[in-house]
Design a protein that fits this description.
The complex is a heterodimer of chains A (316) and B (329). Chain A is of the alpha/beta class and 316 residues long. In chain A, 44% of the residues lie in helices and 20% in strands. Chain B is mainly alpha-helical and 329 residues long. The chains are: A alpha/beta (316), B mainly alpha (329).
């Protein structure tokens, strides 16, 4: 394939992304804080910014979750609650245990000890697929697009309770074709929402890195989750797409979905999070609203570093 | 050299009972590898338990043949569970190791002195498929021009190709269903499928069982075809012929294994007759090549053919070459 052809293939995507960026910026300018942000802020008023603090309506609550790798304690969380309907960010230096904590609560790794519950149900040590079915869906740091499935198939896979997924019913199309049609409609709506409709029948393997991030989010939403856990959704994404991803995340929160994300870009975190939890050496060392975290001595020492704290002081 | 007889021999090979049997077993393997991404290097083990499951009850206990075939299927399901339960939760390579080892272990068990009362050990067992041939609707041999199949071979071919096409139809229905979508997603990325609420262990198990049962049916047919069964028919190399067939035709294509089996057997018999005739008529001087070498050298040529195929059509004859170029991480 020649270079020229490749450029032609890319162009519509780039244009779509740029268009999207302009739309998102315009929307953000017009709105100010969104309904969801206001709601989340109200719910969290009066919650003290200290590690392990109780929230008024926690969707996820973890107790004494410990994961040891040989002699190394990767995660040691005494108590952590995540407020329903918020965007909660997990921050911390590399190796602080954020992703391991993600893997533990989503059932992709087994803790040494500890328990946690989702929506009031104890889901400690439950199989990952059962946790997902309960409405707690995660994405991965390295995007996992299902390469040799089409974009539409990728999204449709997310639908839960598909009767055609049973071996006995699968050959009998009439038993599941109605459900398949309605799932397809729902998938098309999601593809439209994430501006992937032009890729609908292409293999997901032909997508750009940014489109794969969008695809992963669309696929997760197909599960109709109450809680979405995003592991570094902005990693390796260009600034334009970062803005549009942020827009999508905020819209989700405004629709009532709770979001937990691991992220390294501090500007991103401070601008969209309702609550920030800071990890260091496997423990929760601080949590609070973005403003609390910015001023927190422990966070500055462990993560933000001296330079950042100085600029904060200058601002005052 | 008689080109017409070489060609008719080759076509006989391409559509004969063996090709049908290999095609059926490869359809099962394709379900494993092509659609689920399972590395099964012991498909011959499923064929072995299918074949002996069919023959032993008839010879040892005097049961009717159809009961034997059902027992063969049950043995394949048991083998799939035995292999799958410990390994399918682990990474893919563990299944590969377990299957290749299990197939060999089974062959040694079936040929051991200890199993001789049932399996006949190294001497094997014979004459168990008379029930099958009693149902043969063909009364005389089939002769059209250079083609010549005996009535019995014709009957096995009819059942074999019919069964293979039925299996292909079933696989096609399954793969284009939501069940098949989950299966293919497991092939692409297990973790992603898990994160979307799919019980990947269960799907891998279903695939292993279903493909294994197809292998067992191929084994049954193989036993029925020859009316004689020895464990050493089921050497590990047979599994790799099946892999060759699947890759030749195109993995994860419904008809890939069928085309693969036809081409594989065509090439094999074509080279066989060509070389034998060339040696016989002195085109190849007898100092260069003896007719006893032909059996081995034809496989060398098949290997060469496979290498050329991988260079120029890496996705197989029916495969979508575009799919291979996708960056699979």
């Amino acid at each position: 394939m020649s270079g020229d052809q490749e450029q032609h293939e890319l162009e519509p995507d780039l244009l779509a992304e740029r268009e999207e960026l302009i739309d998102v910026e315009r929307e953000l300018e017009a709105q100010g804080p969104s309904a969801g942000a206001v709601r989340a802020a109200e719910a969290l008023t009066g919650v003290a910014p200290e590690p392990g603090v109780a929230k008024p309506d926690p969707i996820l609550s973890a107790d004494g979750v410990v994961r040891e790798f040989g002699g190394l304690t990767a995660v040691d969380v005494d108590h952590l609650e995540v407020q329903r309907g918020t965007i909660t960010a997990l921050i911390g230096p590399n190796g602080a245990g954020k992703s391991t904590f993600f893997n533990l609560v989503s059932g992709f790794d087994t803790p040494t000890r500890g328990s946690w519950s989702f929506n009031g149900t104890d889901i400690s040590r439950m199989a990952a697929h059962k946790i997902a079915r309960l409405g707690m869906v995660r994405t991965f740091q390295l995007t996992k697009a299902l390469m040799r499935l089409t974009t539409l198939e990728n999204v449709m896979l997310g639908a839960t309770g598909q009767s055609g997924e049973s071996l006995w019913r699968a050959p009998l199309r009439f038993l599941w074709s109605d459900q398949e049609r309605s799932n397809q409609k729902r998938a098309d709506v999601l593809l439209e929402r994430f501006r992937l409709s032009h890729m609908r029948d292409e293999f997901a393997g032909t997508m750009s890195g940014g489109q794969r991030k969008l695809l992963e989010m669309a696929r997760a939403l197909m599960v109709e989750p109450d809680l979405v856990m995003l592991d570094e959704p902005m990693a390796g994404v260009n600034p334009a797409l970062t803005q549009s991803l942020l827009g999508h995340i905020q819209t989700l929160r405004d629709e009532g979905v709770t979001i937990i994300l691991v992220e390294h870009d501090m500007d991103v975190i401070m601008s969209i999070s309702d609550w920030v939890v800071c990890f260091a050496e496997g423990r929760v060392i601080a949590e609070g609203r973005p403003d609390d975290i910015r001023r927190d001595k422990a966070v500055i020492d462990a993560y933000l570093g001296a330079r950042r704290s100085l600029t904060q002081e200058d601002d005052k | 050299m008689d080109l017409l007889s070489i060609l008719s021999n080759s076509l006989r090979g391409a559509f004969g009972p063996e090709a049908a049997i290999y095609a059926l077993a490869a359809v099962g393997l394709n379900l494993h590898f092509g659609y689920t991404g399972l590395l099964n290097f012991g498909q011959v083990g499923f064929m072995l338990v299918g074949a002996y499951g069919t023959a032993v009850p008839v010879v040892a206990w005097g049961l009717p043949l159809w009961v034997g075939i059902l027992i063969g299927i049950a043995c394949a399901i048991a083998l799939a569970l035995l292999l799958g339960v410990p390994t399918l939760r682990l990474r893919g390579d563990y299944l590969a190791i377990a299957t290749i080892a299990a197939a060999e272990v089974l062959r040694y068990i079936y040929r051991s002195e200890w199993a001789e009362p049932l399996t006949g050990g190294v001497f094997g067992i014979t004459q168990f498929a008379n029930d099958f041939y009693d149902f043969n609707p063909f009364s005389g041999p089939f002769v059209v021009g250079p083609f010549n199949f005996s009535a019995n071979a014709l009957w096995v071919m009819t059942v074999g190709w019919g069964g293979t096409l039925l299996a292909c139809g079933l696989v096609a229905l399954l793969i284009h269903s939501p069940w098949g979508r989950v299966l293919r997603s497991v092939r692409e990325d297990e973790q992603a499928a898990r994160s979307l609420g799919k019980n990947i262990f269960s799907y891998k198990m279903q695939s292993l069982i279903l493909g294994g049962v197809l292998g067992a049916l191929a084994g049954s047919l193989m036993a029925i075809n020859t009316q004689a069964l020895t464990p050493d028919v089921f050497m590990p190399i047979l599994t790799f012929y099946l892999w060759t067939i699947m890759i030749l035709g195109g993995a994860s294509r419904i008809m890939g294994p069928v085309l693969g089996a036809i081409v594989f057997w065509f090439l094999l018999t074509f080279l066989d007759s060509l070389l034998r005739q060339a040696i016989g008529t002195g085109v190849i001087p007898s100092g260069w090549l003896e007719s006893s070498d032909v059996g081995a050298i034809r496989f060398a040529f098949v290997g060469l053919g496979l290498m050329l195929l991988m260079m120029f059509r890496p996705a197989g004859l029916l495969g979508k070459q575009k799919e291979l170029r996708l960056d699979v991480r």
